[in-house]
Amino acid sequence: MADNDLGSLLGGLLGGGQGGAPGGGDILGSLLRSLTNGQGGGGNPLGGLMDMLAKSGLADQAQSWIGTGENKPVSPEQVAQALPADTLQEVAARTGVSSEEAADQIAQHLPRAVDKLTPGGELPRSGASLEDLIKQQSL
Questions:
Q1: For residue range 37-88, what is the model confidence (pLDDT) as tens digits?
Q2: Percent of the chain having pLDDT more than 70?
Q3: Cβ atoms within 10 A of the Cβ of 28, count?
Q4: Other CB atoms within 10 Å distance of the CB of residue 38
Q5: Who wins on pLDDT, 11 or 78?
Q6: What does the pLDDT average to over 126-130?
Q7: Residues 6 or more apart from 62 whose CB is under 8 A from it?
């Protein structure tokens, strides 16, 4: 299943990769898949997610993850407010956790994942697939 593949790649990127219980890679993989499905096409939803966070008042945090300095934290409440409710519910259902737990795990793991996917301090170009970007950074 594609969610599992993306979750495994993200888990490896984050230094995890535990089977069984949902981890950061599983949650983030499901989140990014949900955002990709909404856009159609198999592109890179990272830019759209960053725009969504910025429009929700989290521009400083999101930019800190992309930049080369310290990553500013984000709270589960901020994540829940920034994401469409149906997206968060879909992620929770896919990973077998509550919406609150999904928001908590996204808040915990998203800053580091974005930081690792943007090592040069810039968002990847829209033509690159997310899976390819993760594989490049995991090497």
A1: 654 444 567 888 888 999 999 999 999 999 888 999 999 999 999 999 999 9
A2: 68
A3: 27
A4: 13
A5: 78
A6: 64
A7: 50, 53, 54, 114
Q: Note whether 137 and 117 are within 8 A (CB).
A: yes
Token digits of residue 73: 């934290």
Residues 73, 5: Cα–Cα separation, whole Å: 27
Contact criterion met (CB below 8 Å) for 61 and 72: yes
Is 61 within 8 Å of 87 (Cβ atoms)?
no
Q: What is the 3-state secondary structure (H, E, C) of the chain?
A: CHHHHHHHHHHHHCCCCCCCCCCHHHHHHHHHHHHHHHHCCCCCCHHHHHHHHHHHHHHHHHHHHHCCCCCCCCCHHHHHHHCCHHHHHHHHHHHCCCHHHHHHHHHHHHHHHHHHHCCCCCCCCCCCCHHHHHHHHHC
